[in-house]
Every structure is written in structure tokens, then in C-alpha cells.
């Protein structure tokens, strides 16, 4: 191509040199046509080469695409084959959950059925208790009590049967869990085996596809070499033809050039003489200009030397500055390397410490949750045990009171020959309503004795004056510390009342809730707050005593004899209510019937033992609550510690995910 372009350029130059020669113009035209055809052939050949190259490249790329598609299909099949294990496990787990839900519904239905049956049996037993009072003969009463005992035993046996059935189901659950673990281990082994097999198959598939791609590229390479060899041979053949044409054209041009050179010699000799004269004149003019330029160059040389010296000095200064900066850069690089090493060391240490703290936090969180579960379990268990013990001893006390009433009836009717009058209300109904029924009876007939015994004279306690200031202070403490005794709707209504009126209504509601409805009960309650509730004090807090009139103490604990702090109010009112409840039960018989009540000594001794046991349980519950509060505070301190901000995974973020 380059040779043909050069030939066409030379031909164009020849044509422009001698345009008058017709033969030269014809030759030039032929040469231009040959050059144009040659360029067209070169373009066509290049186009064919590019198409062949694209075709050859397409064959290898097609094999690569086919191999990739085959590998993708193989991967998809492998993934499905491996995933089938998980799908089967999920399906089995779903079926297990459905079956477990059905079993749970059956258990709930069985519990409900058992509760209905137990409720019916309990109702039958409760109805039989009222009929026992109709039996007057001990043998009949004993037989009926045996029937009641057997009925209660049947109820307990049904509940024990349900418990045993649930225990057997729990044992079956443990065995099912062990079986599930074995199945899961087998599925994991199966999954690992399939993954290993798929890995080996994929490796073989990759090797096979790689060999196919190599074969395709080798075939493509052989075809490309053969095509290139044919193309090179054709190019060499055309080159030989072009060389022959070029040699003939060159010989013709040489002859023309010789003739032209001869003509040029004649013309150039004449032009030379004219040019020589002209150039000599120009030389003289240029010599004058040369002298002027030398002077100018001399001046410029001096200026350049001065500038050179200035630049040299600046270069020296820059070199010194550069060396200084290099030393500084070296020092900074050393410092940077030291800091990087220190940072890496610190980062590794902090990461290790962070991991340790994270593990410690997880361990403490797990312990705290275990402790919460244990606390909830023991709290529920202790509460149920406490209620059972309370109900058991209450039932025992009621039975003994009923036994005493029966003995009192026998003594009155058989020994004394008097008409015995039973209590106005059953002791069981009275124990359920506790103080409410007693309050209603006192309001209906305040002068009548609870048990209406003609042998007992009405007793009216002497009127005692209570200190108004102490009463007001006690009511204020109760309103602030025992506000939970007031109903929620009443508390919302109190918010719309003035402050003094709201406190008065709130204190009245608390007194009603505690069952304090007379001055005697009020004095007993105040006796738990003050040493002497009847000792009067002035409005300013001074005791009305001549020996203490000069003292202006305003602290109720110091001047009024207050023995209870705000933190002990709940405990005091609880003790007061419980004591009043049990005292009222004990007061079924007045002081005149102590001879009859002597038979209760053993029962009361057992009851005292139960109370002490209950007190120990309450103390244990209090200690456990205090430990729970301490653990909660300790956990809050750990969560609020500043070190949590430096952790990669803060505990608060883990709580949010959970």
C-alpha cells in the first residue's frame, strides 16, 4: 500500500512537470488507475480479513458461552439437589408443629374438661358441708365426713391422673427431642455428602468444559494460521507483480529524467549567474546586519550570564530547602510508621477487649434471664404455696370454731339445759365477707352481740379521745403511701376535687378498705403508728404537757412518739388487717366462754406454727425481691457503662434485634 501511494505521488509529480507531453499524461492516467485499483483491493482484503477474524473469534466465544450456560444449568441443578434436604426438613418440621398444635388443643380441652368435672365435684362437696350441720349424732357425722373425704380424694385422684399423663407426655417429648436431634444429625451428614458429591461433579464439569474451550480455541487457531498463510502467499505474489511494473515504470522515468536534467543544466547556468550577482549584493547587506546583531547578542549574553548566576544561587537555595524537606519527610514517615504500628497494636488490643466484654455481657445477660425465670417460677410457686397454706389453716380454724360451736350447743342443751342460739351468720360466710358483713351487722343493730348469747351481757367499750393532730398526720401518711387501696375510678374523680377535700375523701376510702369503722379500731390502728395515740398535741406540733411546753420541736417522730416510717406503712397496715381478721375469728367466744375455748389451745398452737412458717416464707420472698432489684440495678449499670459506646455491637442494639 505504501509503495503504491508513493508511486502515485511520483506519477502525479511527473504529470505536473511535463503537462504538454501526451504520452506522459497517458502513462500518468494509467498509473493513477492502477493505484486506485490497488487501494480498492487493499480495502476489500482488509474487510475480508476483519470478517474472517470476527467469524473466528465468534466461534471461540460461542463455545465459552455454551460452556458457561452448561455450568449455570449444572449449578442450578446442584443447588436444587442440595436445597431439597432443607425443604424436606422444613416440611417435616411444619408437620410436627401442626401435630403439636393438635396435641396442645387436646391437652387444653382435657384440662377444661377436667376443670369442669372438678368444679362440679367441688360444688357437690361444698353443698354437702351445709348438710353436715343437720347431723347431731357423732357416728352419722363421722360417716358423712368420711364420704366427704372420699369425694375429695376422688377429686385429687383425677388431678393426679392428669398430672401423670402430662408427665408421660413430657417424657415422650424428651424422647422425641432426642430422636429429632439424631434425624437432624443424619440430615446434616446427608447434606454434607451431597455438597461433597456436587463439588466433585462440578470440578469434573469445569475440567470437561475447559477442555472443550481449549479444543475450540485450538481449532480456531489452526484455521486462522491457514487463512493467514494463504493471505500472505497472495500478498507476496502481488508484491512480485507490482515490483515488475515498478521496474518498467522506473526505467521509463529514468530516460525522461535524463532528458529533463540536460535541459535543466542549460537553464540553471543562466539562472546561476543572475542569482550569483543577486546573492553577492545580499551578502554585503547581511554582513552589515550581522555586525548589528553581534552587538545586540553581546548585550543579551551579559544579561543571560547575570540571570544565570541568579538562577544558580536560587537553585542552590532550592536544593538546600529540598534536602531539608526530604529529611523532614523522612522523620514524618518514621513517626507515621510508629503511629501506625501503635494504632494497629491498640486496635488489636481493643478488639480483643471488645470481644471479651461482649462475651462477658452475653454471659451476664444469659445468667440474668435464667435468674428472672427462676425468680418468676419460685415467686409463683411460693405464692401458690402461701395461698394453699393460708386456705388450709383458715379452713382448719373454721372447722375448729364450728366444732367449738357444736360443743357449746351440746353444753348449753345437754349440760346446762339452756336454749342455745346459733350465730346470726355462718362463720364461713362471715370469713368470706370478713369485715364487710360485720360492719353491716353493727350498723343494723349496734347493741346486739355478734352471736346473740343471752348469757353474755352487752359490752360497750369506754369512749377514748384520740389526738386529732396525730390522726390527721396518720391519714396523710396513709394517703401518700397506701393510695393503691383506692379504686382507679375514684382516684380519677379525686383529681377534680380541691386538695384538702381530695385528701379527706381518699383517707376515708382507705379507712373503709382497711375495715376501720369505729373509734376503737381507729385507736388500734394509731397504736401501730404512735406510742400513745391519746396524747394530745397542739396545732404547731407541741405536746400538751407542762414539762414540754417550752420545746418547739416540729418533727413528729421526735415530739409525737411516731414509731413507723413512711417505708413501713404498707407492712404496718398489712399486719393490722391480718391481725384484726384473726382476732375477730378468735373473738367468736367472749371472755365468759374461756372454759369452752380452752379446747382450742392445741389448734391455736398449730396455727401459730403455721404463721411462723408463713413469716419465714415472706422473709425469703423479700430477700429474693431485694436480690432481684440488686441484679436489675447491676444490669442497668452495665448497660449504661461508657465502655458500651466503644463496642462494635452495643448491648442496646442486641436487645433491639432480639
TrEMBL record:
PANTHER family: DYNEIN REGULATORY COMPLEX PROTEIN 1, NYD-SP28 PROTEIN. This is Dynein regulatory complex protein 1. Residues 82-118, 178-223, 269-381 form a coiled coil. GO terms for cellular component: axonemal dynein complex. Residues 87-188 form the Dynein regulatory complex protein 1/2 N-terminal domain. Residues 1-63, 429-456, 538-559 are annotated as: Disordered. GO terms for biological process: axonemal dynein complex assembly; cilium-dependent cell motility; regulation of cilium movement. It holds the Pfam family NYD-SP28_assoc. It comes from Phytophthora megakarya.
